[in-house]
Amino acid sequence: MLIGLISDTHIPEAAEVLPARIKEALCDVDLILHAGDIYIVSVLDELEALAPVFAAEGDDDYQEVYRDERVKQQHILRVEGITILLRHIRPWSWPRHEKVPDILVFGHTHKAMIDNSNGILLINPGSPTFPSYKYELGTIAILAIDSGKVDARIVNL
Question: Which CATH number is 2-156's, of 3.60.21.10, 3.10.180.10, 3.30.428.10, 3.40.190.10?
Fold first, then answer.
């Protein structure tokens, strides 16, 4: 399964519309996970024209976004035996009773990163429209899961 990861689109503040480069980069994915700071629901609608979408509530999102059925504070997904936690802000510690995921997808920082140093694959796709809080094209990420094997990469737009 090929999963597109995106966060912090900030539409229409960072860009008037979702840039075509994002749609081109996500054209072959089976699923899209948006890690919050969406701003307007039409972003999710545009992404859903490419693949099913799950999204996390961002700390700067508005009521319209919170009411959308695709948006939750966090999503826990199971894909080919791999547990993925999608949220906007990275938790810095895990409660003892909470099952730790195999993969954590998060946003908020506007800085792309992939880190697997602590046994959990941490992926922040950065921002495609507002990287490092600059108004320019940035990054998304692609996550491939095949027979329990995982590969993640950052895509510069």
Answer: 3.60.21.10
Query: Which of these, 119, 122, 100, lies nearest to 109 by C-alpha position?
Result: 122
For the stretch 38-76, pLDDT in tens is 999 999 999 999 999 999 999 999 888 999 999 999 999
**Contact criterion met (CB below 8 Å) for 32 and 51:** yes
Tabulate helix, strand, coil % of the chain (nearest 5). Answer: 15, 35, 55
CA separation (Å) from 130 to 13, 14, 42, 43, 127? Answer: 9, 6, 18, 15, 5
First to last CA, the chain: 22
User: In the chain, what are the domain boundaries?
Assistant: 2-156
Tell me which DSSP letter residue 16 carries.
S
Structural contact between residues 59 and 87, judged by C-beta atoms closer than 8 angstroms? no
